[in-house]
Specification:
With 541 residues, the chain is of the alpha/beta class. It folds into 3 domains: 143 residues, Rossmann fold (3-Layer(aba) Sandwich), CATH 3.40.50.280; 233 residues, Alpha-Beta Barrel (TIM Barrel), CATH 3.20.20; 99 residues, no CATH class. It contains 21 helices and 18 strands. A 6-stranded parallel β-sheet has the order 6-9-10-11-12-13. The protein has a 5-stranded parallel β-sheet with strand order 2-1-3-4-5, with helices on both faces. Helix 10 packs across helix 12.
């Protein structure tokens, strides 16, 4: 029997960011704190992919633990297993176990590594309490492995809140992860979320309100809500949004939602709080979606997105390329459809055939060739060959750089209209432009691209007007971001224009958005101006 045990729960994050919060390990630590207040000392350790496994091991062993738990996801599996091997080599007898989505989806594969003593799959609070109790009693790790019986926790009210019990101090992190429910009502073939359980279970509203008030008191600036479909339960979603509006109006929230469950009131409530919505479109082709256990009514989707647009809510879409039954042309069509709805951002991903998913089980029958090791990316399919996947990847990189990072949302449709092309073709042209221009300042790249795009046009001045629009929005957005990341400073920047930007902005504000019209309405006159912020708004002098 061990009288007092030191346990280290390790979170390996992709990078330092507001999302890099060890919520999973903290939830386990809260359960252990309640179960073994005197017999167990639990330490939470934040590590990052950029660190070497040896450096990670140094930090873990500094606590002199008898046991180490690794939170394992698709992005950190390799580093987590390398860390486990080093821990075993440097500290024989140490117990190393794993949990998290990757360990759950491929339990047999993870446990096949001799450096891992056992896996706690699925929801871990009850499992870790049982496992640590056995270790404290001197049980063999083989017996713990054999006795693990995963099951969803039916009543989330029985769980301690790591935020409220002091395990996770919101002031220690730039953002917070927030769990309002568990489970997923959908069975998308490419996702593991709904496997091992059915339906959803919700965190009690009393705890939701208490955590929200704590976030506000601790001056949390960003909260990422983990629910895969926040608005599935409309009444609950509306209650939470009203609570946010009344309790934490200064915090920016990130929600994942489905369009099917939107209505006018919900769209208005989203618009009344500081938030960004992410909608998993995946494809705009219903035939393709049915291959992965989904479906789509285009007309209904457009109507629901229009509600968000009319309310003034910020929303973005996810698209996946390489889905079974899809082609490069089909993906390009989905991209054009998505961009036609004016999203604030668009994230494009290559399909991953993840362990434990139905797609993994049916991949051979669908003709999907994919990596057998993480990140499990699709390599080819009957309609989407390797070369086409590479071209789609170029499209994805160009879209992210030009549209998302380049803050092109306010003026992208103006550019497409003047060029007479779709979004996919524009991004393909930009990808070709990047081949001959080294990566650097994004706004400068955009300006160079649009001027080149109109070089042989009968009215090449459109390119200079477009470059001025890109300069204004790009430099203004950079100022606003600088003020947010470095509060207290008064950032300014100089910017060169081909026309007086004040005259250009006056025409845009008056509704003149055709580039050709603007070339006649705004007289040319190269100038350099200074941009600054006045009460958060960009100004010119």
């Amino acid at each position: 029997m061990i009288r007092i045990m030191d346990l280290v729960l390790v979170a390996i994050h992709i990078e330092v960011s507001p999302r890099a919060v060890p919520l999973g390990p903290a939830q386990l630590a809260s359960a252990l704190k309640r179960a073994y207040p005197a017999a167990l000392r639990t330490h939470i350790l934040d590590l990052f992919l950029g660190q070497s496994a040896e450096a990670c091991a140094d930090q873990v062993l500094a606590w002199e633990p008898q046991a180490v738990g690794l939170s394992m996801y698709v992005w950190n599996r390799a580093l987590a297993l390398e860390l486990a091997r080093i821990l075993k080599a440097r500290r024989p007898g140490i117990v190393v176990f794993a949990g998290g989505a990757e360990a759950t989806a491929d339990q047999a594969g993870v446990e096949a590594d001799p450096a891992v003593d056992f896996v706690l799959p699925g929801e871990g609070e009850e499992l870790i309490v049982a496992a640590m109790g056995q270790l404290l009693q001197g049980a063999a790790t083989a017996d713990i492995r054999a006795g693990v019986r995963p099951a969803p926790i039916q009543d989330l009210a029985t769980l301690a809140s790591p935020h409220l019990d002091g395990t996770l101090d919101p002031r220690d992190y730039a953002g917070q992860l927030w769990e309002l429910s568990r489970g997923c009502p959908f069975t998308c073939d490419f996702c593991f979320e709904s496997r091992g359980g059915s339906g959803t279970r919700r965190v009690p509203m009393a705890r939701v309100e208490a955590e929200l008030r704590l976030f506000e008191q601790c001056l949390v600036s960003q909260v990422f809500v983990l629910d895969p479909t926040f608005n599935y339960h409309k009444a609950q979603a509306k209650a939470v949004l009203r609570l946010i509006r009344a309790t934490a109006p200064g915090i920016h929230f990130f929600f994942e939602i489905r369009s099917e469950f939107l209505d006018r009131e919900l769209a208005r409530l989203f618009a009344e709080v500081k938030c960004t919505l992410q909608i998993g479109l995946q494809s705009a082709d219903d035939r393709v979606l049915r291959n992965i256990g989904r479906s789509m009514d285009r007309a209904d989707f457009q109507r629901k997105i229009l509600l968000l647009h009319q309310a003034g809510a910020s929303y973005g879409f996810d698209l996946i390329y390489g889905l079974p039954g899809d082609t490069l042309e089909g993906f390009r069509a989905s991209l054009d459809f998505a961009m036609g709805l004016g999203p604030n951002h668009l994230d494009l991903f290559r399909l991953s055939v993840l362990p434990g998913t139905r797609l993994r089980e049916t991949a051979a029958g669908l003709g999907l060739v994919h990596q057998q090791e993480h990140p499990y990316l699709v390599l080819s399919s009957p309609g989407f060959g390797a070369g086409d996947l590479d071209r789609a990847a170029r499209l994805a990189r160009a879209c992210d750089l030009f549209y998302n990072q380049g803050k092109a949302v306010p003026w992208f449709a103006i550019l497409l209209s003047a060029l007479g092309i779709g979004a996919a073709e524009c991004f393909e042209r930009f990808a070709g432009f990047l081949d001959g221009h080294p990566a650097g300042d994004i706004t400068a790249l955009q300006c160079g691209f649009v001027k080149e795009a109109f070089r042989d046009d009968p009215n090449p001045a459109q390119g200079r007007i477009a470059a001025d629009i890109a300069t204004w929005f790009g430099r203004s957005a950079a100022l606003v971001e600088a003020a947010l990341t470095e509060p207290g400073d008064a950032p300014t920047c100089r910017a060169a224009f081909h026309h007086d930007p004040r005259a250009l902005l006056e025409q845009l504000a008056a509704g003149i958005t055709e580039l050709e019209d603007l070339t006649f309405m705004v007289p040319p006159g190269p100038c350099e101006v200074e941009l600054y912020l006045d009460q958060g708004e960009p100004r010119i002098r």
